[in-house]
Amino acid sequence: MSTTASLASRKPRTYFHVHLVSDSTGETLNTVLKSVSSRFDAAKPLEHVSSLVRSKKQLNQVLARIESSPGLVMFTIVDPELRRHLEVKCAELQVPAISVLDPLLNAFADYLGLEQTLRTGAQYTLDEDYFRRIGALDYTLAHDDGQMVWDLETADVVLVGVSRTSKTPTCMYLANRGYKAANIPLVPTQEHPKELETLKHPLVVGLTAAPDRLAQIRGTRLKNISAPDHAGTYSDQDEIRKEIIKAKRLFARKGWPVINVTNRSVEETAAEIISRLSAKRAGK
Q1: Cβ–Cβ under 8 Å, residues 47 and 20
Q2: What is the rounded radius of gyration, in angstroms, for the C-alpha atoms of the chain?
Q3: Given CB 3.0 to 4.6 Å as the disulfide criterion, which of 26, 41, 176, 222 pairs with 22?
Q4: Rounded CA gap, 101 and 125, in Å?
């Protein structure tokens, strides 16, 4: 029977159980699940997370949960014996068990001609990259929302934009990737910091968004914090349009790249920034 015919004859699932089994933190599995499940809007995963599974006793407890709530099993387990035990038991329970990293690991091993490092949590080694990311997070927190403008030259990236254009969450995402990111809010009643005029080392990026979307976000923000808009300008669409026009003039005068975040996730915005930063460093 073809895959298409098989799918057609099977009743679609609205909700389904997914067991994430890891001998480390489980972050890799969580990321993969989110990426894959986003392709199936009609079905929602019911996640069962089992992290730091490093003994047969722990694994048997996990298997008991899988038996009581059968569903997909996604795993990252280094120990061959534990891995084999999980695969055998899942086969007996007739539930699919997927080692999500196998295709990549096998491809790397074939290409590099090297054996894999069988070490649990190898990606979390306290190496230079780890401390670089911690340093980036410290820097980004200290330089959030226009703080320490005198120290912007040491940033990798500086984001500039009007209120609620996702500057802070984008900076935090970049910091988690090891980039020192600062952000400067453009306030309609104030001039931008003079330090922005002379920056040479960082990539400066202007963030903008559609006025109607910003008005909606700002209005919701005011309601959530129970704050009145006394001047009536913060969430007014016409006033926001003026803010954006002023910001775009600054971006154009300085020749900064501009990203419209209206229909972008933080991850998508950060990906474009990283791509631009790589090009800048390569002299392109």
Answers
A1: yes
A2: 24
A3: 26
A4: 18
Structure letter (DSSP) for residue 185: E
Residue-wise pLDDT tens digits, 88-129: 999 999 999 999 999 998 898 899 998 877 666 665 555 677
Burial class (CB in 10 A: 0-12, 13-18, 19+), 277: middle
118 alpha carbon, distance to own chain's centre: 27
Q: At what angle do helices 266-281 and 167-176 cross, to 10 degrees?
A: 60
Could you tell me which CATH number the domain at 128-281 has? 3.40.50
CATH-assigned architecture of domain 12-122: 3-Layer(aba) Sandwich (3.40)
pLDDT (tens digit per residue) in 179-230: 999 999 999 999 999 999 999 999 999 999 999 999 999 999 898 888 887 6
